[in-house]
Amino acid sequence: MDLGKLLIEPLLLSYVQRAIVAALLIGAVCGLIGTYLVSRSMAFLSIALTQAIFPGVVIALLLYAGFLVGAVVAGLLTVIGVGLYSRRTHGRWEMAIAVLVAGAFALGVLLFSRLPTYRSDLEAVLVGNILSISLNALVLISILAGLTVAVLFTFYKELLLVSFDRTLAVSQGWPVYWLDRLLLVALAATVIISLGALGTIFVVPLILIPSATARLWVGHFWSAMLLGCFLGALSDLAGLYLAYYLNAPSGATIVLLASAIFLVSFVVSPRRGLLAGRFRS
C-alpha cells in the first residue's frame, strides 16, 4: 500500500475527519500553553488542575450528562476557589491549588465508586479516545481553543513579563494577580478540550512534552511557543494515524510519539542535547 493511500484512506471517514481537526486544535493549544508552564517550572499546576476537574466529570456521569459539561463547571469552580483562597490569605496560588486538588480528587474517587455500572464515557475521560469525538464536542473544542489562543496572543507581553520578572511587573503596576488567574483559566480551558481526546492520564504529558522538546531546540520564548505548537499538533496528528492503523488507544499512542520525539531531540539537539558538545567542536 502506497503512502498516499495510507494518508487519504482514513479521511474518507467522517469520525476520522472530526478527530483530525480536534487533534490539530488540541495539539496546537497544548504546545502554546505548555511553553509558559515549562518556562515557569509549573508542571505541578497542570497535574493539579487535571485532578481537580476529575470530580466534576464523575458527577456529570452520575447525572447522565456530558462529561465536558462537568469538566467546564469543575474548571470554573477550581479557578474561583484558587483565586479566593490566594487573595484572602495573601498566599501563593500554588498552595491554594495544592489544598484544593487534594480534596477534589478524593471526592472524585469516592463518587467514582458510586457509579452504578461501568460507563464507557469514564474510560474515555481516563485514557481518551479521539476517534469518538462527536460534532458537538468538536464545536466546543473549537470555541474554547480559539478563545484560549486569542487570550495567549492578546496578553503575550504581559504574561511573558510576569513569567520571567514578576518583581518588575509589580513595580510597573501590572495586575500580576489577574494575569496569574488568566493563565490558570487558559490552562483549565486546555485541559477541558483535551479530556475527550487524551483523558486525564495523558493530558499533562501532551501539554508539557512538546514545549519541553521545543526548548531543547530554540532559546527565544516566541520561537519556543511556535515550535511547541507545531510539535504538539504533529504529535497529535501522527499519533492519531498510528492509533487508527494499529487499533491502539489514541491517547497512549500520541503521548508515546511525543515522548519519542523528545528523546531523539534530547540526544541530537545542537543546543542542549547530549551530543551538543560534539556539534560545537
What would you say about this model in short?
It contains 13 helices and no strands. Helices cover 82% and strands 0% of the residues.
Distance between the termini: 44 Å
How would the global form be characterised?
globular
Helical residue percent band: over 70%
Order of helices and strands: HHHHHHHHHHHHH
SS element count, helices: 13
Number of DSSP-assigned strands: 0
CATH superfamily heading:
ABC transporter involved in vitamin B12 uptake, BtuC
Q: What integer value in Å does the Rg equal?
A: 19 Å
Total domain count: 1
| Content-based structural category | mainly alpha
The CATH C-level class name? Mainly Alpha
What name does CATH use for the topology? ABC transporter involved in vitamin B12 uptake, BtuC
Task: Give a written overview of the molecule.
With 281 residues, the chain is mainly α. The protein has a single domain (3-266), classed as ABC transporter involved in vitamin B12 uptake, BtuC, CATH 1.10.3470.10. Helix content is 82%, strand content 0%. The protein is built from 13 helices and no strands. The protein has helices spanning 3-8, 14-39, 43-62, 67-89, 93-112, 120-127, 135-154, 156-164, 166-171, 176-217, 221-246, 250-268, 276-280. Helix 3 (43-62) packs parallel to helix 5 (93-112). The longest helix is centred in the last third of the chain and has 42 residues, at 176-217. The chain is globular. The chain starts with a helix and ends with a helix. The model has no long low-confidence stretch (mean pLDDT 83).
